[in-house]
Specification:
This protein has 354 residues and is an alpha/beta fold. It has 17 helices and seven strands.
Length: 354
């Protein structure tokens, strides 16, 4: 059975069409959690969750626990829904893999069994363990082939920035507020791409404006910025010749007890990105080439670096990286004040960039 797309799953659940076996994998935890909840709501008759819904923690249960839960008959109609989270399919003993392989074709018609995995793809990581004995690898291969034939395997990939921005815009509208696509993207820049965190920040913003519009100044004053966002802010202040503002942003991170090494590391990334882009430009290549060659998950960082790069020469970027490397050595030597090292670094960077 080929992988089931997220849209196909959404359609099937809306129609009440259920399969006996699901595997949810992928890197986007929010959508994976959302559809797991939707699957449970569709499968289990409301009011009978305590009888017909079983949630098992794969780190704490054994295979017999899973099979016992799957074999139970539902009470008062509906389905018996069994969700097993983070079950170690890739490390099952050969005997357990054989038992589960034999069971998958015999899942009762009244049961919906879902394996929720943290892995980005299926088969899960570790499934090709070179150290495993031949019998174990053989049984694993047979097990995963049974899953491919019988399970609806749904991979929830990370959402693009555009999709996240659209989700935030719709979320604000549902709460009676207004959020433009541009401000939604700014939220991503300030808060990162974690959907749980973003939706929590959206709740704060909507509570602040009521039925009004969420503006860029409000974002700056209300949302909790990630360390990476504040570090980008420091670099932007330096590029604009605002060393005093950069030092103020640094103080915010220090007041939050952020380790100096983490602050410096976050500051290094933008300059590494700019250096790569500058070299690519000189070689007649572009942003897409850098993203591919260095395996960037998204274009977000590179796009920001490209905007900053317009006013800089390659020699300036190199000099900045040298200053940051010297600061890294100074922090690791632990011979002085970490705060002083960071402050001196910002002043030196400001002198190069102005």
């Amino acid at each position: 059975m080929p992988e089931l797309s997220e849209q196909a799953l959404k359609k099937e659940l809306a129609e009440g069409t259920l399969r006996r076996l699901y595997v949810f994998c992928g890197a986007e935890g929010y959508t994976k959690d959302f559809y797991t909840q939707k699957l449970m709501q569709t499968a289990v008759t409301e009011g009978f969750e305590s009888f017909n819904l079983k949630k098992l923690d794969g780190a704490e249960c054994e295979l017999p626990d899973v099979l016992e839960a799957a074999e139970q008959l539902p009470l008062m109609g509906g389905c018996n829904c069994c969700v097993v989270k983070d079950f170690p399919l890739s490390s099952l003993r050969a005997a357990d893999a054989q038992v589960l392989c034999a069971y998958l074709p015999r899942i009762p018609d009244t049961t919906v069994l879902c394996f929720y995995l943290r892995d980005e793809a299926f088969p899960p990581k570790g499934a090709k363990d070179e150290g495993a004995d031949q019998e174990k690898k053989k049984k694993q291969k047979e097990l995963f082939e049974q899953f491919r034939q019988r399970a609806a395997i749904v991979r929830f990939d990370r959402m693009t920035d555009g999709a996240i921005a659209a989700l935030l815009t719709r979320g604000a509208e549902k709460r009676g507020a207004k959020l433009s696509p541009a401000c939604a993207r700014q939220m991503i820049e300030l808060c990162g791409r974690d959907l749980y965190l973003l939706l929590n920040e959206l709740e704060k913003l909507c509570a602040a404006v009521g039925s009004g519009e969420i503006t860029a100044p409000l974002l700056q004053s209300v949302v909790t910025k990630t360390m990476e966002a504040t570090s980008f802010e420091i670099v932007e202040h330096l590029l604009a010749g605002r060393t005093d503002r950069a030092l103020q942003s640094l103080r915010i991170l220090l007041d939050q007890k952020t380790p100096a090494q983490m602050i410096l590391g976050a500051m290094i990334f933008p300059f590494v990105d700019m250096y790569r882009l500058k070299l690519a430009q000189n070689a007649g290549k572009g942003l897409r080439d850098v993203k591919k060659d260095f395996s960037y998950a998204s274009s977000f960082r590179l796009e920001k670096a490209q905007r900053s790069l317009r006013q800089l020469s390659l020699s300036q970027v190199r000099r900045c990286l040298t200053i940051l490397n010297e600061a890294d050595t100074a922090l690791k030597s632990r011979g002085g004040s970490d705060v002083l090292v960071l402050e001196e670094t910002l002043v030196k960077l400001g002198a190069v960039l102005c």
